[in-house]
Amino acid sequence: MEEGSRSVPGSCFCGMVRFEATLPSLFCAHCHCSMCRRNHGAAFVTWFAIPRAELRILAGEDRLVRNRSSDHGTRSFCGVCGSSLFFETTQHPERIDVVLANMTEPIDREPQLHVHFSDRVPWLSVADSLPRLGGASGFEPIAD
Length: 144
Description:
About 5% of the residues lie in helices and about 40% in strands. The protein is mainly β. The strands form 3 sheets. The chain has a 7-stranded mixed beta sheet. It starts with 5 loop residues before the first strand and ends with a strand.
């Protein structure tokens, strides 16, 4: 492990899938896209990304189910309890996105921004001062 890095444990709800992510993370963001909302049953999902090589599955790899959710994305979840765990995209094959809520210890940063903010649900009031990205790509600066 290089200087300044540390591993943080995480797991699914039932504990069958256990993993660790070696920090530093690449980013941490709240995603408001419709796929994340439906996949998690929530108004938004908070993800952080690490280089793919920095994720280690410690237990339950045989319980992971991978779902091709779009032409470029794959979501992984626990086949026992259904917890959504990871997102991979061919647009950034060098990284993997991890659901922050599944970590059992803090990571190295707080959420930094909102992405796909134009797609947010109308019943959620967001009162923080984090940057908001949206538009057609989900990553264009917007004013709200």
